[in-house]
Fold:
Amino acid sequence: MIITIRGTSGSGKTTCMRRAMALFAGRELHFAPKRKRPLYYTFTEPKVAVLGSYEAACGGCDTVSDVLSLFPLAAELHAYGYHVLMEGLLISPFVRHYAELGIECHNIYLDVSLEKCLEAVADRRAARGVDKPLNPENTVAKARCCDLSAARSIALKMPTYRLDRDAAFAKVLELLDVEDPL
Structure:
């Protein structure tokens, strides 16, 4: 199975993935040639592969310059028996690519208000020392892209969920049959 987590900037995709990864055991990092950060992680319990890097504040598939290379990688890891988790803004338009893999794919869209997303983006920028005023247009456009992606996912009859941050985390654990210790 492939599980994707999608949403606009600041919606909580990376946070959701990091929360889930903290519950997994047996982490191994995998690097590609000439790449300083991991390309993906594998875990032994549950048997999961998480694509992208989580070594910096922003993570996931958005850390990979050639996003399209992740689809054959996901298929290969799935063939080795891994469930594959992917999150990122850049993967949102590629719903058809998941469908063409022929692998069960669950798409989780974070249903977070635009105001909360803009607040999170502003906080992240402030933490990096960026004091230039935030222009919301990019985040608004990305939110529209995610809405279109969700509609495509539904049209392709793929399991699609619109969930808040906590419910999205719970859904990932449910799909992987992992218990939340809290």
In short: The chain has a mean pLDDT of 93. Residues 2-173 form a domain with the Rossmann fold fold (CATH 3.40.50). The helical segments are 13-21, 70-79, 95-101, 114-127, 137-155, 165-176.
